[in-house]
Write a structure and sequence with these properties.
By secondary structure, this protein is an alpha/beta fold. The chain has a seven-stranded mixed β-sheet, sandwiched between helices. Strands 1-2-3-4 form a four-stranded antiparallel β-sheet, with helices on one face. Helix 3 crosses helix 4 and helix 6 packs across helix 7. The longest helix is centred in the C-terminal third of the chain and has 14 residues. The radius of gyration is 17 Å and the shape is globular.
Length: 261
């Protein structure tokens, strides 16, 4: 750590923001690094654009978690999106991000399409039915505040909240460390009724073993290829995502493909 910038205890977790020589501005929750200035764009872009470009016309998007507003920043690049509801249980994460991490929050904070709710995401999603085109679960690991969004009841409510052709994207853990967690989540997706369930790998050096993934469940067909073309403005805004990266992300190493399929 080069410099501690903020360290506060919320009602739910310990929130730290600090600067390191190699990674720049960094946020950790309960001692676990969540985002760094060096590579945050890889995670935020893939969690957002894989599913948004897999939908022919996403207009209403729900983000569960994502209080640092990084995923919201990416979703808002899509002009077809009319409204984004973001529900994070911990307002302190957003408060500190707005104060100290403007590269994540500034663009999203100024966009009137974004609506913030600070409450239990698992309960919030149960209040909507046949409403959203995309639901993105941008959670921490399945312990502590995030436990309630890694179970069957949550995903049953997510499915109900989606309009026909809707897509869910959830933080999908690491194939090297968490294969059992991923397979269990895949089984839940299938049990509640998602027709196509797929896993996309995200290369991000800050995270353990250098990668994480997103688990995608769709009611409108496979998400392995984009269904919309990017505008030049959208292409110019990307640091990680592209059509080629979208398609390549679904190619899994054999040891994991055999477990997943």
């Amino acid at each position: 750590m080069e410099q501690e910038i903020a360290h506060e205890k919320s009602k739910f977790q310990d929130v730290e923001i600090f600067k390191t020589k190699r990674c720049g501005l960094t946020m950790a929750l309960d001692g676990v690094i969540q985002t760094t200035e060096l590579d945050e764009f890889a995670y935020q872009e893939m969690m957002s654009h894989v599913v948004l470009y897999s939908h022919p016309n996403p207009q209403r998007v729900l983000i569960i978690g994502g209080g640092d507003l990084g995923v919201a920043r990416e979703v808002l690049k899509h002009k077809c999106v009319e409204t984004i509801d973001l529900c994070d249980i911990d307002e302190k994460v957003t408060e500190l991000s707005k104060k100290y991490l403007p590269h994540l929050t500034e663009a999203a904070s100024k966009d009137p399409r974004l609506h913030l709710y600070f409450e239990d995401g698992a309960a919030y999603v149960g209040t909507k039915e046949n409403y959203y085109d995309i639901v993105i679960t941008e959670s921490t690991d399945p312990i502590g505040p995030a436990e309630s969004i890694f179970n069957k009841a949550y995903y049953e409510n997510v499915l109900k909240s989606l309009r026909p052709g809707g897509i869910i994207c959830s933080q999908g853990e690491n194939i090297w460390l968490d294969a059992d967690v991923i397979i269990n989540l895949r089984n839940i997706f299938k049990e509640v009724g998602f027709k196509d369930v797929e896993y996309a790998i995200i290369q991000i050096p800050t995270y353990t073993f250098g990668s994480i993934g997103c688990l995608v469940g769709s009611m409108g067909g496979s998400c392995k290829k984009p269904r919309r073309e990017m505008t030049q403005e959208e292409k110019d805004s990307m640091k990680y995502y592209s059509k080629a990266i979208h398609e390549a992300a679904f190619v899994m190493p054999e040891f994991f493909r055999k477990k997943f399929e």
